[in-house]
Amino acid sequence: MVEPFSQSFLIEGRNFLNAGKASTEIKSILKQLGVNAAFIRRVAIAAYEAEMNVVMYARKAKMTFQVTPQVIKILVNDEGPGIPDIERAMREGYSTATPEMREMGFGAGMGLPNIKRNSDDFTIESEVGKGTQLGITINIS
Amino acid sequence: MTVQEIIEDLGLSVCCGEGNLTREVTGGYSGDLLSDVMANSKTGNVWITMQIHVNIVAVAVLKEISAIILVNGRQPAEETVRKAIEENLPILQSQLPAFEIAGKLYFLGVVA
C-alpha cells in the first residue's frame, strides 16, 4: 500500500535552466514511495510535459502533486496567456512555439496529447489573459 | 550490450558519466524533438540527438536513458555537462550523423 503524500512546486516561466526539476523530483518521490515503475513512467511523461508548457508559455505556476493509495494527481494552476482554442491545442502536431523554442526541440505539438494519453482522467480549463488549469489523474490501485 | 561496449565499437568520445558505463542498453531512439523522445523512447535506450542544451538531461533522467549520443560533432553546452555529471548520465559524442550511428547500432544488435 502506497503512503499518502502531497507536495507543491513553484514553476517559473522562461526558466529553461531549471526546467524539468519538478518532474524529476516527483519521479524520485514516487520511486521512494515504492510505486510501480509502469505508473511512474506515465506520471513522469505527463508531469514533464505540463511543466514544460508552464516554462514555455506562462509566467509561473503552482504544481500540486498528491498521492493516495488509489491515485496520483497532478494539478497545475498557471498565470499566463491562457489557451484561446483548447480543442485545437489538444490536436497532435499543433503548436504555438516560437522559432527559438523549436530550435531547442520543443514545439512538436505533442505536449497536451502526451499528457492526455498518459492520464486516466485529464481536465483542462483556460481563461485567455489569466491562465490555465490542468488536472491529471493516474489510477494506481 | 553495455554503454562501454558501444563506446568501443563505435569509437565514441565520452564527455561525462564515466562512472556509469556498465549500464545495459535495451535499444535506441533517435530524435531531436523532446516530446517525441519523452513519448517514444524506452527505459535503458541510448538516445541519438543533435540537441545539446541542458533540457536533454531532464528528458534522459526522466526516461532512464542509458546514454545520450551527440552526433555530427556537436559539443554539449557547459550547463548540460554540469547537470549530466550531477545525474551521473553518460554523454557521448561522434562526428558521424544520426543515420550512420543508428545504422551501426542496429548492426551491433542494438535494435529498437
Name the beta content range of chain B.
15-25%
Element pattern of chain A in H and E = EHHEEHHHEE
Q: Helix segment count of chain B?
A: 5
Strand-pairing-aware structural class of chain B: alpha/beta
Helix content of chain A: 25-40%
The biggest beta sheet of chain A is recorded as: 5 strands, antiparallel
The CATH H-level superfamily of chain B is HprK N-terminal domain-like
Report the uncertain regions of chain A: none
Main sheet of chain A: which strands, in order across?
1-2-3-5-4
Label the CATH architecture of chain A. Answer: 2-Layer Sandwich
Strand elements of chain A, count: 5
* Radius of gyration based on Cα positions of chain B: 12 Å
The structural domain count of chain A equals 1
In angstroms, what is the radius of gyration of chain A?
14 Å
SSE string of chain B: HEEHEHEHEH
Helix-strand blueprint:
The complex is a heterodimer of chains A (141) and B (112).
Chain A (H helix, E strand, L loop, with lengths): L4 E8 L8 H12 L4 H21 L2 E8 L3 E9 L6 H4 L9 H5 L7 H8 L2 E7 L3 E9 L2
Antiparallel strand pairs in A: 1-2, 2-3, 3-5, 4-5
Helix pairs in contact in A: 1-2, 2-5
Chain B lengths: L2 H8 L2 E4 L10 E4 L3 H7 L4 E5 L5 H8 L4 E4 L7 H10 L3 E3 L4 H10 L5
Parallel strand pairs in B: 2-3, 3-4, 4-5
Antiparallel strand pairs in B: 1-5
Helix pairs in contact in B: 3-4
Q: Can you describe this structure?
A:
With 141 residues, chain A is an alpha+beta fold. Chain A has five helices and five strands; from the N terminus they run E-H-H-E-E-H-H-H-E-E. Chain A has a five-stranded antiparallel β-sheet with strand order 1-2-3-5-4, covered by helices on one side. Chain B has a single domain (3-107), classed as 3-Layer(aba) Sandwich (Udp-n-acetylmuramoylalanyl-d-glutamate--2,6- Diaminopimelate Ligase, Chain: A, domain 1). Chain B has a five-stranded mixed β-sheet with strand order 1-5-4-3-2. In chain B, helix 3 packs parallel to helix 4 (78-87). The chains are: A alpha+beta (141), B alpha/beta (112). Chain A binds chain B through residues 16-17, 19-21, 23-24, 27, 37, 41, 44-45, 48-49, 52, 104-111, 114, 117, and chain B through 32-36, 38-39, 43, 49, 51, 53-59, 61-63, 79.
